[in-house]
Design brief:
This protein has about 500 residues and is an alpha/beta fold. The chain is about 35% helix and about 20% strand. The strands form six sheets. The chain has a six-stranded mixed beta sheet, with helices on both faces. A six-stranded mixed beta sheet has the order 18-23-22-21-19-20, with helices on both faces. Strand 11 and strand 12 form a beta hairpin. The longest helix is centred in the middle third of the chain and has 27 residues, at about 170-195. The radius of gyration is 31 Å and the shape is elongated. The two termini are about 55 Å apart.
Length: about 500
């Protein structure tokens, strides 16, 4: 028995009319009859096509301010009736229920209404009832019915009609059913998340993202990878190759880090494997780039670059001297863009949107971890002086600078800085002592003078050994969360050796 089904009658009821006229033209040309309500019926007839009103089929008008229009057995029976089921066919004949072979419907713009700042009453009215029911009914009976649940499916529908005429295969109907359930599940998730609000203690986790971008591969070539999200809402890609999975991880890390530094004074950062290997804040962007690169010119090779101010030609000329994967900035001077674009694979991004998410997700153990993003930003007012020696204003500036970087570094992490320049960091180490030694060795390998530098730690010091090692290297000011049962030992060492230390009470682990 053939699985090909003819389209004889289409129920069309949509909120958005754009693009619908082409579909209606194709269906009318194939002799398909139309059934509709309200504004959609008016739209169809305005194109010169006959259309039966749902109210005439059901003998019920649209009631309750339009809340009830299609919710009737003559509509849902026509969609859900199984064409090969004798009992269904007999009942449809008895109650004069016509077969409906194609349902074209979309949903009230709930998410757009929420995003617009509409009142709660307006938002509630945009919770679709009839539309979502039609979608589920059509998708459930995909053996006999085609369901088109959004204008995004007009193109595949038009392609199918153009190829087959007014008929469909089981595989095609199943495709549209899957798309329909994606629409309905995403819609319900949006409604749930609206009612749950920003409650991070909500009982359920519901995430639905329709926008998908296939990656060349995942973290490694043997792994498949995809990105779900609206990348274009944050960036314009002006140049370069396709963005990879690892690029996206670095871009996210770069944007998160640079958010800490605002836009008032030029800042430039270089990242590698999600960690900063160079960062400086300077009066000019060229100076910021030069000193950021000096922090680790070796690791900068193949890195991701980010600036908080537009790239000028002079800075671009210096950046052009190294190999890098990605550069991100709020804009580029014309001459700067010409310089940077001469290598075809360089990914050049203009950032025009900010991170707005307040939660982070990670898949683990056949489940998911959810947490609030670390949005804590320490200021001078948060610094608690715990040593006899007080920090100077210049040291406070450097300590807060270093603390911002260590917050975005893989734990265990130590950051050394001076004059708002990252001198070195020790990251991803299994002990804090190892992280410190790594940072000192790295700074010395690039001939930095650590005398007068400051140290930031992402978590407390379990012993006094870290401040002792730092002091021996020339560090004279420290910032750390505090909270160890041996804090006093660390404080005592600092007092005995002229080191100034402040605590913040905020840990910044990053795993």
């Amino acid at each position: 028995m053939s699985d090909i089904k003819k389209i004889k009658t289409a129920l069309v009821s949509v909120f958005h009319k754009d693009g619908l006229d082409d579909i209606l033209y194709m269906l009318h040309a194939q002799g398909v009859k139309f059934l509709s309500t309200g504004g959609t019926k008016t739209f169809i007839e305005g194109l010169g096509y006959p259309c039966q009103a749902v109210e005439d089929l059901t003998s019920y008008p649209s009631i309750l301010g339009g809340r009830v229009k299609t919710l009737h057995p003559k509509v849902f029976g026509g969609i859900l009736g199984r064409r090969d089921n004798t009992s269904d066919k007999e009942q449809m004949a008895k109650y004069e229920i016509p077969e409906i072979d194609l349902v074209i419907v979309d949903l009230y713009p709930f998410e757009a209404t929420v995003a617009s700042g509409a009142s709660p009453e307006e938002i509630i009215e945009k919770i679709d009832i009839g539309g979502i029911s039609l979608i589920r009914a059509g998708a459930k009976n995909f053996n006999d019915v085609i369901i088109v649940a959004s204008k995004a499916q007009y193109a595949p529908l038009a392609e199918m009609i153009g190829k087959n005429g007014a008929q469909s295969s089981l595989a095609e109907r199943r495709f549209f059913a899957a798309e329909a359930f994606a629409v309905s599940s995403g819609y319900d998730s949006a409604i749930y998340n609206y009612f749950a609000g920003d409650n991070n203690d909500a009982e359920y986790l519901r995430i639905a993202i329709d926008e998908k971008k296939a990656m060349r591969y995942g973290e490694n070539p043997h792994q498949k990878g995809m990105f779900f999200g609206k990348f274009d809402e944050m960036f314009n890609q002006l140049h370069g190759k396709e963005i990879s999975y690892n690029n996206l991880l670095d871009i996210d890390a770069a944007v998160s880090l640079m958010t800490e530094f605002g836009t008032e004074t030029p800042a430039f950062a270089i990242l590698k494997h999600n960690n900063a290997c160079g960062l400086a804040v300077r009066p000019t962007l060229l100076e910021a780039w030069t000193d950021a690169l000096a922090g680790d010119p070796v690791s900068a090779f193949g890195g991701v670059l980010i600036s908080n101010t537009p790239i000028d030609a002079a800075t671009a000329a210096e950046i052009d001297k190294i190999f890098f994967e990605v550069i991100i900035a709020p804009n580029y001077e014309k001459d700067a863009l010409e310089i940077l674009c001469h290598k075809k694979n360089r990914i050049i991004l203009v950032q025009h949107g900010q991170l707005t998410t307040t939660r982070q997700f990670r898949s683990i153990l056949n489940g998911a971890l959810v947490q609030e993003r670390d949005l804590a930003v320490e200021t001078v007012a948060d610094l608690k002086q715990v040593t006899d020696k007080a920090i100077t204003a210049a040291q406070a500036d450097d300590l807060l600078f270093a603390n911002k970087i260590v917050k975005h570094s893989k734990s265990n992490a130590i950051v050394l800085a001076k004059n708002r320049q990252l001198l070195a960091s020790g990251i991803g180490q299994t002990s804090r002592v190892d992280a410190l030694r790594q940072s000192i060795a790295k700074a010395q390998s690039f001939n930095f003078d650590l005398n007068g530098a400051v140290m930031a730690s992402d978590a407390f010091f379990p012993f006094a050994d870290c401040v002792e090692i730092a002091h021996q290297a020339g560090i004279d000011a420290v910032i750390q969360p505090g909270g160890s049962i041996r804090d006093q030992e660390t404080i005592d060492y600092c007092n005995n050796n002229g080191i100034a230390m402040v605590t913040t009470g905020i840990r910044h682990f990053k795993h």
